[in-house]
Amino acid sequence: MADGQQPVADAAPMPKRNAFTRFLDGVEWLGNLLPHPVTLFAILALGIVLLSGLLGWMGVAVADPRPAGANGVAEDGMIRAVSLMDGDGIRRIFTNLVGNFTSFAPLGVVLVAMLGVGVAEKSGLLSAAVRSMVLGAPKNLVTVAIVFAGIVSNTASEVGYVVLIPLAGAIFYALGRHPLAGMAAAFAGVSGGYSANLLIGTIDPLLAGITQEAARLIDDDYTVVATANWYFMVASTFLITLLGSLVTIFVVEPKLGKYDPALADPTILDDRMMEEVSDTERKGLRWAGLALLGVLAFMALTLIPEWGVLRNPDTGDRIDSPFFDGFVVWILIFFVALGYAYGRAVGTMKTDRDVIDAMAAALSSLGLYIVLVFFAAQFVAFFGWTNLGAITAVTGANFLVETGMTGPSIFFMFILLCALINLSLGSASAQWAVTAPIFVPMLMLVGYSPEVIQAAYRIGDSTTNIITPMMSYFGLILAWATRYKSDLGVGTMIAMMLPYSMAFIVFWSVFFYLWTFVLGLQVGPGSPTFYVTG
Question: In DSSP terms, which residues pair with 80 in a beta bridge?
Answer without folding.
Answer: 61
